[in-house]
Amino acid sequence: MTEIQGSYDDLFTAVPEALAALLDAGDVGASVAVFVDGEPVVDVWGGFADADRTIPWQRDTIAGVWSVTKTMTALSALILADRGELDLDAPVARYWPEFAAEGKDGVLVRHLLSHTAGLPNWDGTVEELYDWPSATARLAELAPQWEPGTAAGYHSLTQGYLVGEVVRRITGRSVGEFFADEVAGPLGADFHMGLSAEHDHRVALAVPPPSRDEDYLASAPSPTAAAAAGTRIRLRDGNSVAWRRAQIPAASGFGNARSVALVQSVMACGGTVRGVRLLSQAGCDRAWEEQFSGEDRILGMPMRWGLGYGLFGSTYGWGGWGGSMVMIEPDARMAVSYVPNQMREPGNDNRGIEVVMSAYDGLTALRA
Fold this sequence. Notes:
Number of helices: 12
CATH superfamily: DD-peptidase/beta-lactamase superfamily
Strand content: 15-25%
Number of domains: 1
Structural class: alpha+beta
Radius of gyration: 19 Å
Distance between the termini: 29 Å
CATH class: Alpha Beta
C-alpha cells in the first residue's frame, strides 16, 4: 500500500485508506483534508507531484483545482453581500453599467451566482482569457441565450469573470486580490487566484488520463453540451505559466486540500473559523437558497443550484475538471476536500465522492 503522509484522527482512518487505495490504483499524487469545527481531523497527502514520479508530493505541494475555484469566488461575493456592499437582488448593471447592453438590464447578481444569467459561452481565444479588461468587455457585449432566471446552463469559464467584475467594481480590487486580502490572508490559507512565480516550484502539474496527452480537452457530458460551451480548454493550457499568472476566477485557482477545506470551513461553521469572522450565519445560509432545480442546459443533467454552489441533499459544494472536489456539511460543521494531479478517463471519476463518503465513516464514529 502507498505510504500516506500527514496526520489524522483515529476515527477517520477510512480517509487515508481511501487515498492510499486511489494511489495504489495508479493515481500519481493527491492531498485530502477533512475539517470539523474549523480544525483538521484529516490532513494527508501521498504519491508524486510530477508525471515521472520523481518528486514526492510534499506538505506544501499545490495543484490547480479547476472549477473548485468557483467556490472561492462565490465566498468572496457572499462576504460582500453580508457586509451590505453587494445586493444579490440588484441588477448587475447597478455595479457594472456597461453590462446592461443587449437587453441584460434585467440580469440580477443572483443570476450570475446560480448559472442562470444566460451567458454560459466563452467564444474568445484561450489567450484572451488572460486579459481581464478584454474578457469582461466581451461578456458585457453579449446577449443572453435565454431569459435570465428561467433556465440554468453551467457558466464554466464565464461565471468567474461575471462575478469577479462585480467584486472589482465594488471594491476596486480584483477578485484574486480581494480573496487574498480578506479570506486567505486572515485564515492563513495557501490558496491563490493568480499565482506568483515564487510558488511555481511547489506546483504539481496536471497529469492527463492514461489514454490522453496534454492536448486533452475539457469536456461536457454530451456532445451538444460541449459544443454549446464555446472555446474549450486543453490540459496544456492549464499547465502553462500564463494560466497560473492569470486570474480566471472560475477555473485557475491553486491550492491543496488543506487550504480548500480550511477556507470552505467558514461556510460550514457559520462564518467564523479559528477566531476569524468572515460573515454571519445568515450570510452563510444564503448559499443554500435554491435558485434553480432542473435540467442544466450545458451539463445535460439535473442540477440544483444555490448561490455559488451546487446543492446535493444535506451538503453543498462543487468539483473541478480533473477530479478535485470540496463538499460542505453544515449540520456536522464539516468540510471535505480532495485535490489530485492525476486526471481519470472521461466519465469514469468518482474519486471525490469516494473520499467524501470515507469522511462520513469518521463522522459517524465521531457522533457515536
